[in-house]
Write a structure and sequence with these properties.
Blueprint: H1 19-22, H2 33-51, H3 57-66, H4 86-95, E1 100-104, H5 109-121, E2 128-135, H6 142-155, E3 161-165, H7 174-193, E4 197-199, H8 204-217, H9 221-224, E5 230-232, E6 252-254, H10 262-272, H11 288-304, H12 308-337, E7 339-341, E8 344-348, H13 349-354, H14 357-372, H15 378-389, E9 397-399, E10 402-407, E11 410-415
Parallel strand pairs: 1-2, 1-4, 2-3, 4-6
Antiparallel strand pairs: 5-6, 7-8, 8-11, 9-10, 10-11
Helix pairs in contact: 2-5, 2-10, 5-10, 8-11, 8-12, 12-14, 14-15
C-alpha cells in the first residue's frame, strides 16, 4: 500500500504566532548565591590580572563597546547543557580579542564550577575560554573520565578543549610526581595554544590544607604563605612559589577561587545541573593531603571553631605579603651588592653581617636560586651564613651543585657539578 505523506501544517494567519514561535524557550537555571560567588571570583581575577594589561586603544574600545552592561543575572544555558545559546555565543565570541585563557579541568566540582563561570565571564572581558584536561593514567577508566570532562567543557561552550595524557614518574612521591607531570602538561598546552593564562580550581580549603602541610614540615614564611593568586606558570609549585622578579611572564597561572569554599563550588555545580566527578584519590588516606582534609582540619574545627579554614587562609595572606615585601627589598640589595666572579658571583661580608638574619638568609637563597637555579635548604643556608657570622677560617662548602667559600672580604658562590650535601 502506498503511503500518503502527511499534509503540511497550515500557515499561520498574519499576526498569528506559529506553534514553534509560541513554544517557550528552554528554561535557564536561575542565578543562585553559589553561582554568583564563583562568577564574581572569576570576574575579579580577570579584571585584576588580564583586563589591566597593556592593550591597544582599538582593543579597549572594541571590548568596552561589546561589554556594555552585560547581563549578570542569567546563567549560560540552553541547547547544549548550560552553554550560551547560539546568538549569545556568537555575540560574545565576536567580542573576544583573541587572547585565550584555559581552565585546567579535572571534572571535579572545583574545576567544573570554575569552567562554567569562566565560560560565562571570559567573553564579557574580551577573552576566549578553553579547557585542558590532564589524564594522569593512574586509575582504571581515567581515559573515560577525561573524555567525559572534555564533553562537558564543550557543552559549556569552551573552545579549544585539549586532552593530554601524561606519564607520572616517581620523584618526590606520588603526589609531587603527579603535580609535576600535570603542571608540565599545562605549560606545554598553553604554549601550543598561545594561551595567556591557565586557571586552576584551587579553593580556600586547598589553601588552608597547604598552610597546615607547611606547618607540619616546619616551613618558613614562603611556604606558609600558601598558593598565590597569580604566578608565572613556569614557576608554579603547589606548596608555594618563589616571589619577586617579573610576574607578567607568559603564560600566567591564575587561581580565582582561593577565596571560595569547596562547599560553594559543589553547590554551584548542583545549581547548574552539572554532575561532578568524584576522584577516588580524594578519599585515599595514604595521601598526606587527604588526611589533612579528612582528619586534621575537621579535628581543628571541632576544637577551635568552624572558622579555622578562613583563619588559616588569612594567615597565608599576611605571611605572603610580608614575604613579597622582603623579597622585593632583597632583590634591590642583590642589584647593589652582587659582583660577578669567574663561574659565579659574590656578596660582601660586611653587608651580609650588617643585615638582620631574615635578610641575610634571603640574600643567600636568592643569589643561589637566581644564578644557579638551586634551592637551598635552611640547614645549607645557615652553613653559608656561618661564613659571615661565625667565621673561624673554615674551608669551602660543597653544597648541591655549588661551591661557597669566603675569600677575603667577600663570600664567593661558584658552580660545582660535583657538589654534595654539607654536614649540617
Amino acid at each position: 500500500m502506498r503511503s500518503v505523506p502527511p499534509e503540511p501544517a497550515p500557515e499561520p494567519a498574519v499576526g498569528q504566532a506559529s506553534d514553534t514561535a509560541a513554544r517557550p524557550a528552554p528554561r535557564r537555571p536561575r542565578l543562585t548565591p553559589a553561582i554568583a560567588d564563583v562568577r564574581r571570583a572569576v570576574r575579579g581575577v580577570l579584571v585584576r590580572r588580564l583586563d589591566a594589561e597593556a592593550r591597544t586603544p582599538d582593543d579597549r574600545q572594541r571590548t568596552d563597546a561589546g561589554n556594555a552592561a552585560p547581563p549578570r543575572d542569567v546563567t549560560p544555558a540552553a541547547s547544549a547543557p548550560h552553554a550560551p545559546d547560539g546568538a549569545t555565543a556568537d555575540a560574545t565570541r565576536d567580542q573576544a580579542d583573541g587572547r585565550l585563557v584555559l581552565v585546567a579541568l579535572s571534572g571535579g566540582s572545583d574545576s567544573l564550577a570554575l569552567a562554567a563561570a569562566t565560560a560565562f565571564e571570559a567573553p564579557r572581558h574580551g577573552l576566549r575560554a578553553g579547557a585542558v584536561i590532564v589524564d594522569h593514567g593512574l586509575q582504571s577508566g581515567s581515559a573515560l573520565v577525561a573524555a567525559n570532562a572534555a564533553a562537558t567543557a564543550r557543552a559549556l561552550g569552551l573552545d579549544p578543549v585539549v586532552v593530554r595524557r601524561v606519564e607520572v614518574g616517581e620523584a618526590g612521591g606520588p603526589e609531587a610526581a603527579a603535580r609535576d607531570a600535570r603542571y608540565s602538561a599545562l605549560a606545554i598546552v598553553a604554549q601550543e595554544t598561545g594561551a595567556v593564562a591557565v586557571m586552576t580550581g584551587h579553593t580556600l580549603d586547598d589553601q588552608a590544607e597547604t598552610v597546615l602541610l607547611g606547618l607540619a614540615r616546619g616551613s618558613g614564611g614562603l611556604s606558609l604563605g600558601g598558593m598565590r593568586e597569580c604566578v608565572p606558570l613556569a614557576a608554579a609549585t603547589y606548596a608555594g612559589e618563589q616571589t619577586g622578579g617579573p610576574q607578567l611572564a607568559r603564560p600566567l597561572l591564575l587561581r580565582p577561587l582561593l577565596g571560595i569554599r569547596r562547599s560553594t563550588t559543589e553547590q554551584s555545580c548542583t545549581d547548574l545541573g552539572l554532575t561532578a566527578w568524584a576522584d577516588p584519590h580524594n578519599d585515599d588516606t595514604s595521601f598526606t593531603r587527604v588526611r589533612v582534609r579528612t582528619e586534621a582540619l575537621p579535628a581543628l574545627e571541632r576544637a577551635l571553631g568552624a572558622h579555622v579554614v578562613e583563619a588559616l587562609a588569612r594567615t597565608a595572606d599576611v605571611l605572603r605579603e610580608d614575604a613579597e615585601a622582603l623579597d622585593r627589598f632583597t632583590d634591590e640589595l642583590i642589584e647593589e651588592l652582587a659582583e660577578l666572579e669567574e663561574g659565579g658571583l659574590s656578596l660582601p661580608v660586611a653587608a651580609l653581617a650588617a643585615n638582620p638574619a631574615a635578610l641575610r638568609n634571603r640574600l643567600i637563597r636568592k643569589v643561589v636560586d637566581a644564578e644557579f637555579h638551586r634551592s637551598l635548604s635552611r640547614a645549607h643556608t645557615l652553613e653559608v651564613a656561618r661564613l659571615v657570622t661565625d667565621w673561624r677560617g673554615q674551608g669551602a662548602l660543597h653544597l648541591p651543585g655549588i661551591r661557597v667559600e669566603r675569600v677575603g672580604d667577600r663570600v664567593v658562590f661558584t658552580a660545582d657539578p660535583l657538589g654534595h650535601d654539607a654536614d649540617a
